[in-house]
Amino acid sequence: MNFLYDTFKPFCARNGIHLLADDMRYISNLLQKVSPDRRKRVMKQYYEEWLLGMGEAHYAGQRMNLGRKRANLFLGDICG
Predict the structure, then answer these.
(1) What Å distances lie between residue 47 and 8, 20, 69, CA to CA?
(2) Is the separation of the CB atoms in 30 and 75 below 8 Å?
(3) Confidence check: pLDDT of 1 > 70
(4) Taking a C-beta distance cutoff of 8 angstroms, is the pair 65, 50 a contact?
(5) How many whole angstroms separate alpha carbon 10 and alpha carbon 57?
(6) CA-based angle 17:21:25, to the nearest 5?
(7) pTM score of the predicted model
(8) Alpha-carbon span 43 to 8, nearest angstrom
């Protein structure tokens, strides 16, 4: 899944979202359930959900965790 590793992960890193190996496995597994023509759109929404989750943090230490949680719940709902 080149888009995920070659494009999406570096894009996230440049924008302050640090995807872990577990995140990448989770995303990769769930994206297999999404038609190829919808994947980029779903990942755009995933990114936006992550940002929304980060915005809900009351302190800096929560930002990544809340972003990750919100984005992964979104992806699970869409693909699960």
Answers:
(1) 9, 14, 12
(2) yes
(3) no
(4) no
(5) 23
(6) 105
(7) 0.92
(8) 8
DSSP assignment string, 21-75? HHHHHHHHHHHTTS-HHHHHHHHHHHHHHHHHHHHT-SSGGGHHHHHHHHHHHHH
Half-sphere exposure of 74 (CA within 13 A, CB side): 19
CA 70 to CA 11: how far, in whole Å? 18
Enter the tokens of residue 58. Answer: 């009351």
Q: CA angle, corner 3, sides to 46 and 60, nearest 5?
A: 40
pLDDT score for 14? 96
Structure tokens of 21? 């190996």
Tell me the average pLDDT across 55-73. 93
The structure tokens listed for 25 are: 């496995």
**Could you tell me which residues come within 8 angstroms of residue 59 by beta carbon, excluding any fewer than 6 positions away?**
none
pLDDT per position as a tens digit, 10-56: 999 999 999 999 999 999 999 999 998 999 999 999 999 999 999 99
